[in-house]
Specification:
Length: 554
């Protein structure tokens, strides 16, 4: 039920700025304090509780206020659902004496109560997202997101002279990278693709002389049912001309500091920086969580004279070694079931290929941290924020399905390190790239690179090394051949970044209307069927799997 309580004041607020400007209300429910005693106010919101038919606890986005209903003037009949101590509210020192009450709307019986302690399933929250968003946590998350974005815009535009440029959503397929969504056109056999990032456009803007570009970019990736991923997401997309890695990293460190929430402990810069090689050696992953130690250790010397056959075999192989993780007080805290869990991981994931040892130990390191925390041991401080740059990635990696072929470790537009540039035409598998990732608490929240800005080098990478058809990128190659400046950039994953800041278990908790694990909108039931008649103009027909013909719309 929506109510408006007032004390003989004009219908519209006299506030010219702030959360109550240009609206019915004069104040929000959560902002009233003892200093407001004696003021005439108008409050608008939802009835949260009715107490003893005397008090209404009213709620809006800002909080709660207690309203006293004089019994000789107004009697409001609402079922008592819950009572709350007034002292639990920031506004608990005051109460509003109602002079008039206007019911603005009524509501049906809701599928769940709008109370933070009420547990709801994930699917129910997604189905009734417009109700779930009323919760104080979701209100906080979305309002913090807005504040963060505003501060980022201020920093980039006002402090460093960036230009906010929108780029197209309908584009064409990009070689390599994530799988893209396709959009049909009315021309037979021709399709658009939804861009997985504005990568080509931002490089073209550097050729165009924009010099410093950014946008809050919507990006799309058809990655199927990957955990905690979204088919559409938001990037803080940035590109600069005449810049090196140090310049980009310095910009991002300043951006994070400038936009960091005031209620959190300040962020210290510069962020630590390690190479990809060291990250893999010490942590077994290229995005290490540095909130805890438990680094990988080489204990090969200990077993130099071992008679244990499988250890001898490992050491006798080229580059063979024996790696281990030291778990502090592990024998004390890890139980038998924990040991079995670790053994099961080892049995199912550890193969006989020595070069996979570190990545698999990296997984075990994280699993050990989870098991210790499950036993009550503090391992990873949830209130700590450990930023880390990882640099000097391989420029190319062997393809999983065909190890004799190479694919881009980042994307095909990344430039080699200057000291490795001579290897690009002779030993490309040994080239390191000018690629840098920003890691926060073991999660990659951003990635970027200095780009190839010479058309001849870019064509060589596409055609000779990656075996891609360069005609797909003829527009970019022509642009690079038109006097492209040296340039580089980065993209920050806004959803992931914010979810870590607020401690959300999923990025869905910082997105207003997210998709489910399967990529579905449970509220509107998208994706939906399209009739055959609607598909005709796109020259498309559907081949229905056996047994699914009944799903086809008639």
């Amino acid at each position: 039920m929506h109510l408006r309580f007032s004390l003989n004041v004009n219908k519209h607020s006299t506030c010219t700025t702030g959360s109550s400007s240009l609206s019915f209300r004069s104040h929000t429910c959560g902002e009233l304090r003892p200093a407001d005693v004696g003021e005439e106010v108008i409050l608008c919101g939802w009835v949260q509780y009715l107490r003893q038919d005397l008090f209404v606890i009213m709620r809006d986005f800002s909080g709660l206020a207690q309203i006293l209903i004089p019994q000789d003037e107004v009697r409001l009949q609402v079922a008592v659902t819950f009572t709350i101590s007034v002292t639990e509210m920031p506004t608990g020192e005051i109460e509003v004496l109602a002079e008039s009450v206007e019911i603005l709307n009524v509501c049906r019986k809701l599928p769940f109560e709008i109370k933070d302690f009420v547990k709801k399933s994930e699917s129910l929250r997604m189905q009734y997202r417009y109700l779930d968003l009323r919760s104080s946590q979701m209100q906080y998350n979305l309002r913090l997101r807005s504040q963060l974005v505003m501060k980022m815009r201020e920093y980039l535009c006002n402090v460093h002279g960036f230009v906010d440029v929108e780029t197209p959503t309908l584009f064409k397929r990009t070689p390599g990278g994530a799988k893209e969504f396709v959009v049909p056109s009315r021309e037979p056999g021709r399709f658009y693709s939804l861009p997985q990032s504005p990568q080509q456009f931002k490089q073209l803007l550097m050729v165009a002389g924009i010099d410093r570009y950014f946008q809050l970019a919507r990006c799309y990736r058809d990655e199927g049912s990957k955990p905690d991923r979204q088919p559409e997401f938001t990037q803080v997309d940035i590109e600069m001309s005449f810049v090196d890695q140090a310049g980009i990293r310095g910009l991002i460190e300043g951006l994070v500091q400038y936009s960091w929430p005031v209620e959190k402990d300040p962020v210290s810069t510069p962020f630590p920086c390690i190479t990809y090689e060291k990250a893999m050696k010490d942590y077994g992953v290229d995005k290490p969580d540095t909130r805890f130690a438990m680094k990988l250790m080489d204990i090969s010397k200990t077993f130099h004279n071992t008679e244990i056959e499988f250890l001898k075999d490992a050491l006798n192989q080229p580059g063979g070694c024996i790696q281990a993780i030291c778990i502090p007080d592990g024998a004390k805290h890890l139980k038998g079931k924990d040991h079995e869990s670790l053994k099961q991981t080892a049995r199912t994931q550890f193969g006989q290929v020595c070069n996979l040892t570190r990545p698999l130990l990296g997984k075990l390191r994280l699993q050990c941290a989870e098991l210790l925390e499950g036993s009550g041991v503090a391992v990873r401080d949830p209130s700590a924020f450990h930023f880390l740059w990882v640099v000097d990635f391989p420029l190319f990696l062997p393809k999983e399905e065909d190890p004799d072929q190479l694919e881009s470790a980042h994307h095909p537009f990344t430039a080699p390190l200057p000291e490795d540039a001579h290897l690009l035409y002779s030993l490309p598998h040994k080239v390191r790239g000018q690629h840098y990732d920003l890691v926060l608490n073991g999660c990659e929240i951003g990635g970027g690179s200095i780009r190839i800005h010479k058309a001849s080098d870019q064509q060589h990478v596409l055609e000779t090394i990656l075996k891609e058809d360069p005609s797909l990128l003829s527009h970019l190659l022509e642009a690079l051949d038109s006097g492209a400046p040296p340039h580089g950039g980065i993209a920050l994953g806004l959803d992931r970044f914010l979810s870590i800041i607020v401690g959300a278990p999923s990025i869905r908790d910082v997105i207003a209307f997210p998709k489910s694990f399967r990529g579905h909108d449970l509220m509107s039931r998208a994706p939906d069927f399209v009739s055959e008649d609607e598909l005709k103009s796109y020259h498309i027909s559907v081949n229905w799997p056996a047994g699914d013909e009944g799903n086809q719309e008639k």
